[in-house]
Design brief:
rod-shaped, single chain, two-stranded antiparallel sheet, mainly alpha, 139 residues
């Protein structure tokens, strides 16, 4: 029988270990049994499951980050456009903010923005006013 002798070099005096070559080389006799196969399969399935769950978590976190970034920008645009004189930039900011909130907002945020757009676009009684016309102009 062929023996492989491995010496571990350590300062605290680990002993040498003998390994039987038949366990690694075969030589007509297999020492691999079902428990080794099951162990490898469990490790592979575990690795695959953890990999899939990690990828899913990373994808969800990335979507959440993008959504949060767009909503922050949308609410900044709304805040900047509040109580300002209407201008082309005002309308672009408002339109972009409303679109971002409708795209990335929660159901309650979407309902609030719908209420806002309906009230902002509704003319005063008996008058037809353009969206963004200041109330001081009679609208």
């Amino acid at each position: 029988m062929f023996q492989i002798r491995v010496h571990l070099i350590a300062t605290n005096g680990f002993p040498s270990h003998n390994f039987n070559s038949q366990a690694f080389l075969g030589n007509g006799q297999s020492r691999v049994n079902a428990s080794h196969i099951v162990t490898v399969l469990v490790a592979l399935v575990g690795w695959f499951a953890v990999h899939r769950l990690t990828a899913w978590r990373d994808r969800v976190n990335h979507k959440r980050k993008i959504s949060t970034d767009f909503l922050i920008k949308a609410f900044q645009n709304l805040a900047n456009a509040a109580n300002r004189e209407p201008s082309p930039q005002y309308f672009r900011d408002m339109e972009a903010a409303i679109a971002d909130i409708q795209l990335f907002g929660s159901t309650s945020q979407i309902k609030m923005i719908e209420t806002f757009t309906k009230s902002a676009g509704a003319p005063a009684k008996g008058k037809r006013c353009r969206l963004g016309t200041p109330r001081s102009a009679g609208c």
